[in-house]
UniProtKB/TrEMBL annotation:
InterPro entries: Aromatic_CoA_ox/epox, Ferritin-like, Ferritin-like_SF, PaaA, PaaA_PaaC
Annotated segments matching region Disordered: 306-339
Gene coding for it: paaA
Annotated Gene3D superfamilies: 1.20.1260.10
Protein's organism: Myceligenerans pegani
Protein name according to UniProt: 1,2-phenylacetyl-CoA epoxidase subunit A
Alphabetized PANTHER family for the sequence: 1,2-PHENYLACETYL-COA EPOXIDASE, SUBUNIT A, PHENYLACETIC ACID DEGRADATION PROTEIN PAA
The EC number(s) this enzyme carries: 1.14.13.149
Organism placement in taxonomy: Bacteria, Bacillati, Actinomycetota, Actinomycetes, Micrococcales
Keyword Oxidoreductase: yes
């Protein structure tokens, strides 16, 4: 058992590590609240990657060309990978992927509210890449320097892939804008639907975000929600101009004095409604995830039985067996979950 004196020393060491902007690693001592905050934040991020496969996965079978299908398939698979790195980072904090998935399905843990909106046209694939992955990049680039080592390292790799996602979305929209009037109208209609939900991705305004101050003190977060939202608007407005679309905000204007954009107020009632489970697709998203989890039960059982058998063989001095059926079904489940 750790004595009070030891605990004070450990805490001082933890605080010093944070102050030096060094990383906290899984075996290091950390305050219980720091651990819990990280589990909540990383799990919510992992769930967003996995649930986020659904709105775009919806269009894989209806992509307008083989090239578009290949790009979209690669993008959705990347999101599965992001979810898995992040669940692994959470596992280093002592919570299993199974527990986290159960918390997602039961509604005890959240995912980003943006994925509760439907994808109604193929232009939404482009808009999601441009705006949703764009907002994710704004949120996530600072997280590459977050204080918890496994999370920061996962973010470095994820951010590289997110910038590919944003470019593919922008390139798709640019192609459509060079097309017919109908295609241009499709892009505008899609941007009209996704603009405000994208701004909501940064979370509630600072005054309604009670955890921010502590997360910043611990180096988990490095910028507030409103700072990141403003950065996203400033980054996106010139891109919208280059694309030739109008962002649906009459209050959006350049402020010469601040050298930044002014913009309208997000509909926070809508945000809280969607976060609270009452968005257009909340029930559908969670039900789909639950079905995929239930359908995959046999794969998890088989993998566990196989691992046990391998352990027993090793205990008896035999060589570990190689799976004769290969990892076929198990390795395919992540992709199948989007179907
Ligand atoms: Fe992602
Ligand atoms: Fe992405």
């Amino acid at each position: 058992m750790t004595s009070a004196v030891d605990e004070a020393g450990l805490e001082a060491h933890f605080e010093a590590t944070i102050a030096h902007k060094d990383r906290i690693e899984p075996r290091d001592w950390m305050p219980e609240k720091y651990r819990r905050t990280l589990v909540r934040q990383i799990a919510q991020h992992a769930h967003s990657e996995i649930i986020g496969m659904q709105p775009e996965g919806n269009w894989i079978s209806r992509a307008p060309s083989l090239r578009r299908k290949a790009i979209l398939l690669a993008k959705v698979q990347d999101e599965a990978g992001h979810g898995l790195y992040l669940y692994s980072a959470t596992e280093t904090l002592g919570v299993t992927r199974t527990e986290l998935t159960e918390r997602l399905i039961s509604g005890a843990q959240k995912y980003s509210s943006i994925f509760n909106y439907p994808t109604l046209s193929y232009a939404d694939v482009g808009t999601i890449g441009w705006l949703v992955d764009g907002a994710a990049i704004c949120n996530q680039v600072p997280l590459c320097r977050t204080s918890f080592g496994p999370y920061g390292r996962a973010m470095i790799r994820i951010c590289k892939e997110e910038s590919f996602h944003q470019r593919q979305g922008y390139e798709l929209l640019m192609t459509m804008m060079r097309g017919t009037d109908e295609q241009r109208a499709m892009v505008q209609e899609s941007v009209d639907r996704f603009w405000w939900p994208s701004l909501m991705m940064f979370g509630p305004p600072d005054e309604a975000s009670p955890n921010t101050a502590q997360s910043m003190a611990w180096g988990i977060k490095t910028h507030t929600n409103d700072e990141l939202r403003r950065r996203f608007v400033d980054m996106t407005v010139p891109q919208a101009e280059a694309l030739g679309v109008t962002l649906p905000d009459p209050d959006l204007a350049w402020n010469e004095e601040r050298q930044a954009h002014d913009f309208g107020e997000v509909d926070w009632d809508e945000f809280w409604k969607v976060v609270g489970g009452d968005g257009p697709c909340n029930a559908q998203r969670v039900a789909h995830r639950k079905k995929a989890w239930d359908d995959g039960a046999w794969v998890r059982e088989a993998a566990t039985a196989f691992a046990r058998k391998q352990e027993e063989t090793a205990d008896h001095g035999g060589a570990p067996t190689t799976p004769t059926t290969s990892a076929g079904p198990a390795s395919r489940t992540a992709e199948e979950e989007t179907a």
